[in-house]
Design goal:
Length: 347
């Protein structure tokens, strides 16, 4: 079975539902409060596991009740947690405002996630053994650089959600096989307000890019060329929290399910894109490709799993349905559908 390693954050979400945002200095009443397991890394791991993925979660929680609850949740979802460290201090938290319209705003307090600055031997081994590595930007940048380098050296297909947008080293994006960004993130990274042009810029350095557009669907690009708009599935939203993470987790699980026996030339499209010369990375600065490579685990790289255009389109269709189900329910992990639910809709 193809394995998915998720290197990312684990938070407890403190969610308040309210009619509108307060003005500066104003106090208003909310009408619901919930504690919900979250964090972009944990969300994506759970979403992938519920779609049948074999998942390892790599990160950290604190020595408190929240940390204990998050670890227990991951185990209950069948996710391997050998790479989940417990550190002194509080577990990360996310403070989420959900408006009655379904829109949300989020403030993250990193907590234990900030302690994940280097990989230990077990975490490096998990990435090297995985077929897919999923990254976000809620962990310190040095560990993202190290994780990406281990993946590159091991032939592991890499998927990045650049959220929140943070300064990343020069050359970082060249090692990412698939970038999945929302409209705002894509514009911030590329300077392109047009989603198709942003997707082309994001994919030009290597492989694939998807720019998600909420109820409008998503734009897909490969090797600097936009392939088109994939439509959304119309639903009435209740809570959009975790929808993007559901999309990513379901997408990677679907790709992993179809990647068995398809190892080979996936790097070819990325190599062609790297020659196109389009620049990505407003806000990137610092290390070079050599710095990324220096963090890698020595060894013989295996070939990456081939991700064909047909496989990507199929995975996007699957992920779109999963995300559409999630927004009809409250919460992040609590809203994520199972494989059977998505399959029933697509039957």
């Amino acid at each position: 079975m193809n394995r998915i390693a998720v290197l990312g954050s684990a938070n407890m979400d403190l969610v308040v539902r309210q009619p509108r945002l307060p003005r500066p200095g104003e106090t208003i009443f909310g009408h619901d409060f919930a504690l919900v397991p979250g964090g972009k890394g944990l969300n994506q791991a759970v979403a992938a596991a519920r779609q049948g993925g074999a998942v390892d979660f790599l990160g950290a929680v604190g020595r408190n009740d929240y940390g204990t609850e998050l670890r227990a949740l991951l185990v209950s979802e069948g996710i391997r947690v050998d790479g989940l460290d417990t550190v002194d201090g509080p577990t990360g938290t996310a403070h989420i405002t959900v408006l009655d319209s379904g829109e949300n705003s989020i403030v993250v307090v990193s907590g234990a996630n900030a302690a994940v600055t280097v990989l230990d031997a077990g975490q490096r081994a998990a990435i090297a053994a995985a077929d897919f590595l999923v990254l976000q930007c809620e962990l310190p940048v040095p560990v993202l650089v190290e994780g990406l380098a281990v993946a590159r050296a091991s032939g592991t297909f890499t998927v990045l959600t650049p959220a929140p947008v943070v300064p990343l080293p020069a050359g970082f994006f060249a090692g990412v096989d698939l970038i999945v960004a929302n409209r705002l993130e894509a514009e911030e990274l590329t300077g392109e307000a047009d989603a198709a042009r942003a997707a082309e810029s994001l994919s030009a350095r290597r492989g694939w890019a998807i720019v998600t557009l909420g109820e409008e669907g998503c734009v897909v690009a490969r090797g600097g060329v936009a392939l088109g708009l994939a439509p959304a599935r119309p639903v009435r939203p209740v809570d959009t929290t975790g929808a993007g993470d559901t999309f990513v987790g379901a997408l990677v699980a679907r790709l992993a399910a179809g990647a068995a026996g398809a190892a080979g030339a996936a790097g070819a499209a990325g190599a062609a894109g790297a020659d196109s010369g389009a620049a990505v990375g407003a806000g990137t600065a610092g290390a070079s490709d050599a710095a990324l490579e220096s963090a890698a685990t020595p060894g013989t790289a295996r070939a990456r799993a081939e991700v064909s255009e047909d496989a990507m389109i199929d995975a996007i269709r699957w992920a779109t349905v999963a995300a559409s189900v999630s927004v009809t329910r409250a919460g992040a992990t609590a809203s994520m559908p199972t494989h059977a639910e998505v399959a029933a809709i697509l039957a």
